Amino acid sequence: MVRGRTEMRRIENPTSRQVTFSKRRNGLLKKAFELSVLCDAEVGLIVFSPRGKLSEFASSSMLKTIERYRMNSKEMISNKKSTEEDIQQWKQDTDLMSKKIDSLEDSKRRGCYWKRMLYCKSKEGTQPFHCGRSLCCA
Questions:
Q1: pLDDT the model gives residue 138
Q2: Does some domain include residue 45?
Q3: Name one Pfam family in it (predicted).
Q4: How far does the chain reach from its first CA to its final CA, in angstroms?
Q5: Please, which residues have CB within 8 angstroms of residue 58's CB and are 6 or more apart in sequence?
Q6: Beta carbons of 51 and 59 less than 8 angstroms apart
Q7: N- or C-end of the chain: fewer Cβ atoms within 10 A?
Q8: pTM of structure
Q9: What pLDDT does residue 59 have?
Q10: How many domains does the chain have?
């Protein structure tokens, strides 16, 4: 006999809901225990019933597990902030480098132009260097 797939929706009958909660909670606690034994994992599980009753499982100290979780979650948040700051810095660096590249390419073009123009033409005649006037060699 094959079990049918359970539809995921709230169980309306309070007695059936309580029985299902109790069975599934016990199954979840069992799986947490098995995971900690088989894989040597540090496991902490906290479950509150609809009436507010606490059920918990910890492979070691629950307080140590919670503290470890808090420390790791703080690191994740600080790493995320530092990553966003790094991205902003990289964008600024990229913009600055693009401007420098444009400037270098522009000066390279001007330099090649002046190398081809061996002499600067002016009213006084031909000079072996650029006279400094912006329109004289255009």
A1: 45
A2: yes
A3: SRF-TF
A4: 94
A5: 43, 44, 45, 65
A6: no
A7: N
A8: 0.52
A9: 94
A10: 1
Report yes or no on 18 lying in a domain.
yes
Residue type, 133: R
Secondary structure (3-state) at 59: coil
Distance separating alpha carbons of residues 65 and 15, to the nearest angstrom: 34
What distance in Å separates the CA atoms of residue 17 and residue 23, rounded to the nearest whole number?
10
**Among all chains, which residue has been given the structure tokens 């169980």?**
11
The predicted pLDDT at position 83 comes to 74
Query: If the chain, 138 residues long, is cut into consecutive pieces of 10 residues, what is the mean pLDDT of each piece?
Result: 83 95 96 96 95 94 92 76 77 86 80 55 53 51
Residue 55, domain CATH: 3.40.1810.10
- Reading phi first (left if > 0) and then psi (alpha if -120 to 50, else beta), residue 16 is in alpha
Whole-angstrom CA distances from 56 to 11, 106, 109 are 24, 69, 73
Residues 45 and 31 sit within 8 Å (Cβ to Cβ): no
Identify the three-state secondary structure at position 111: helix
Cα(63)–Cα(14) distance, rounded to whole angstroms? 33
